[in-house]
Specification:
Mean pLDDT of chain B: 96
Structural class of chain B: alpha+beta
Number of strands of chain A: 14
Strand order of the largest sheet of chain B: 10-3-12-11
Oligomer: heterodimer
Shape of chain A: globular
Structural class of chain A: alpha+beta
Distance between the termini of chain B: 62 Å
Largest interface: A-B, 42 and 37 residues
Helix content of chain B: 10-25%
Number of helices of chain A: 6
Radius of gyration of chain A: 21 Å
Mean pLDDT of chain A: 88
Strand content of chain A: 25-35%
Low-confidence stretches of chain A: 1-21, 286-297
Distance between the termini of chain A: 65 Å
Number of helices of chain B: 10
Order of helices and strands of chain B: EEEHEHEHEEHEEHHEHEEHHHEEEEE
Shape of chain B: globular
Radius of gyration of chain B: 21 Å
Largest sheet of chain B: 4 strands, mixed
Largest sheet of chain A: 14 strands, mixed
Helix content of chain A: 10-25%
Strand content of chain B: 15-25%
Low-confidence stretches of chain B: none
Order of helices and strands of chain A: HEEEEEEEHHHHHEEEEEEE
Chain lengths: ~300, ~375
């Protein structure tokens, strides 16, 4: 009991000290401008060194059922850059388990960036928008990254000792076999082996998330030494009606969500962040020293 | 939470959505006294609906041996334990439903099985409960017992899978009450697998979304009974539609057996889902066990079943089990025959109440051979 009391006292003191010396709330995320025209997807590209990191506090989702009061991820390190064509976020967080094998009782690691579809209007609810307040949600999934790096899941890859006789799709025409292919047969975007590990989606409230017919978001993630580093990128401007149209100098907001698969997080069982101000930088050219930051070249 | 009326527990209860009963409700009756666990129904379902990739472990229809058989492992024991001991004297259930017992932050009291819980579909097969003492002789109920429990999705009036899905990817068809899972909208959160106490939704790890029994709706729409029903060699099943609980139609064999005679009972009514598959309880199993499994009317149902030979209309309804692949909407007994009719009141089938008894001579003159009782 004495030991427990001593521990609690130390713990309380430590908490108080952390509050006194803790960082204030993050002011904003600044997407600095970098050279190039191509999509920015490499999480380890040198250009990220110049981008300032914003530490975003993540909250367990406890508003809507089902909830996850003990969501694992409490802090997300966010960097952002753009090259006048593409806007990219580099998201980094600690995750001791690389969860990219999805079976009944295994859940995947995921991270998402949310932007209001109208970047200049009043901000919608950060919790997946609201009726009339649409949001664009780009979600990277470790399982999709695994599909791209190692191929889509098969029964044998998921369960090495599994055995099955002939499958209907091996002996029937594609049309006839469709009844036996479930979600694959109706092209559910969760089931397909996609070209991008990021799903481009929209929502206007809980339970309304919909994958867009045209996909613009790209990205890549890598897990090393207990940390995920993930890039999620999208065009600043596109013909996508359900995405913000952004330009250097714009100010808008961004929000984030993280799922720790090893902690059985899925769906609304996750960590989320409120809106964080996002500035699309006018120009920062790191390879030209002496140039004042934030001014157009 | 809305207030809905659940006739099986005789009271109003909480449910996340407003109650809208379908025009008619897909239902099935199983006579457990006739099931021999041949698994023909399981195979019929498997080959019809779940031979695809990721569906290897799925049994939308399975038959398990009670009391020690489960698929997945311990499905009912685990949820009963989580629910705790409840008062269930009937006709009004005074205990908690799974919705009453919902933990904070959850849509319903449930649990998610582990992968390995599905590794033993035949666990407990033919295992008995009870011990034999010195000098024991056969009595009813048996001192040592087991029975077979065939199971499909119950197409509940208040489905837990539907209640638990945060995306409303699961819906109940107003025309026949069949509960379906939208394969294009599901995102594989597994909340339905967690929520359904009967564990009749399954997760497909290849497609990464959930799947469930579809009540053979393409057959139902053609007036045909489900594959598991028409394949049943023991003729233990009757599939059709239930009417309204407060306006039963005595000419509908399902209404008659469920609402009027109360011979067929729902599986675990205390969960509060109003499941729509019904069981004629086994007559040789101790009443305490049956009461927990099928509710409070079980002793009367067992008594009634033992006297069925004296009751022509009841016998007639039971005789129609497995008698035709078509859905029987109406029936009547005419003399010593039971007659089943389709929705247009056209005669589908006529079955004698008693099979003629034939006693064969021990010596077959035509073949110049002796018959023995093993041929």
């Amino acid at each position: 009991m004495k030991r427990l009391c001593a521990f609690l006292a130390i713990f309380t003191l430590a908490l108080a000290a952390a509050r006194l010396h803790g960082q204030p709330a993050p002011p904003e995320i600044v997407a600095i401008e970098v050279p190039g025209n191509n999509p920015i997807v490499d999480p380890h590209a040198p250009l990220w060194r110049e981008a300032p990191a914003t530490e975003v506090t993540m909250l367990p989702q406890t508003i809507v059922v089902p909830q996850k009061p003990d969501a694992a991820v409490r802090q997300l390190s966010v960097r952002a850059v753009h090259n006048a064509r593409w806007l990219a976020f580099r998201l980094e967080w600690a995750d001791p388990t690389q969860s990219d094998r999805i079976v009944l009782d295994n859940f995947g690691d995921q991270v998402a960036v949310e932007l209001p579809v109208d970047p200049h209007g009043p901000a919608p609810s950060p919790m997946m928008g609201n009726p009339g307040g649409r949001v664009n949600i780009m979600q990277w999934r470790a399982a999709f990254q695994h599909d791209i790096d190692h191929g889509p899941p098969t029964v044998q890859s998921l369960y090495p000792n599994a055995w099955a006789d002939v499958y209907p799709d091996q002996v029937l025409s594609v049309a006839d076999a469709r009844a036996y292919t479930g979600a694959l047969g109706v092209e559910n975007p969760i089931s397909r082996a996609a070209a991008s590990p990021v799903l481009d989606q929209m929502a206007e409230g809980w339970g309304t998330m919909t994958v867009k017919p045209d996909q613009y978001a790209v990205g890549r993630g890598s897990w090393k030494d207990g940390r995920w580093t993930v890039v999620i990128a999208r065009p600043l401007v596109s013909d996508d009606l359900y995405a913000p149209r952004l330009a250097p100098g714009d100010r808008t907001v961004a929000a984030f969500a993280v799922w720790e698969g090893g902690n059985r997080e899925v769906g609304s069982r996750k960590s989320w962040s409120p809106w964080v101000p996002l500035v699309i930088g006018r120009a920062t050219v790191p390879d030209r020293p002496g140039k004042p930051k934030g001014s157009k070249p | 939470m809305a207030k809905v009326f659940n006739w099986q527990i005789g009271r109003e209860m909480d449910y996340p959505f407003e109650g809208h009963r379908p025009q008619r409700q897909f239902a099935m009756i199983f006579d457990t006294n006739k099931c021999i666990a041949c698994q023909t129904c399981t195979v019929a379902c498997k080959t019809t609906w779940t031979p695809g990739r990721g569906q290897e472990y799925m049994y939308w229809n399975n038959v398990e041996t009670k009391p020690y058989g489960y698929y997945p492992l311990g499905w009912d024991v685990r949820i009963l334990e989580a629910l705790g001991v409840q008062e269930m004297d009937g006709p009004v259930y005074r205990g908690k439903t799974l919705f009453d017992a919902t933990p904070t932050g959850e849509p319903i009291l449930g649990y998610l099985p582990e992968d390995m819980d599905y590794a033993h579909p035949n666990i407990g097969e033919d295992d008995c409960a009870g011990t034999m003492t010195q000098g024991a002789h056969l009595t009813l109920p048996h001192m040592q017992w087991m029975f077979y429990l065939p199971r499909i999705c119950n197409h509940c009036t208040y489905p837990a899978c539907l209640a638990a899905c945060p995306r409303q990817s699961i819906y109940k068809r107003p025309e026949d009450g069949i509960v379906l899972l939208d394969q294009s909208r599901c995102r594989g959160y597994r909340e339905c697998v967690r929520g359904c106490p009967y564990k009749k939704t399954y997760f497909n790890a290849v497609t990464r979304v959930s799947e469930k029994c579809i009540g053979c709706y393409p057959a139902i729409e053609q007036g045909r009974q489900t594959q598991c029903t028409i394949a049943c060699i023991g003729k233990i099943r009757l599939q059709g539609f239930l009417g309204k609980p407060d306006h039963p139609n005595e000419d509908n064999p399902l209404d008659y057996l469920v609402f009027v005679r109360k011979l067929a009972l729902p599986l675990y009514p205390q969960f509060g889902l109003e499941p729509n598959t019904y069981y004629i309880p086994p007559v040789h199993v101790p009443a305490d066990f049956l009461r927990q499994m099928f509710g409070w009317g079980v002793e009367q149902a067992v008594e009634l079943y033992r006297r069925v030979a004296e009751d022509k209309k009841l016998l007639g309804a039971l005789t129609l089990f497995g008698s035709t692949p078509q859905i029987i909407h109406y029936f009547r007994v005419d003399g010593d025959s039971a007659i089943g009719y389709d929705a247009t009141e056209k005669e589908l089938v006529r079955v004698p109440l008693h099979e003629p008894l034939v006693i064969r001579e021990a010596y077959d003159q035509a073949h110049d051979a002796y018959r023995t009782n093993i041929t």
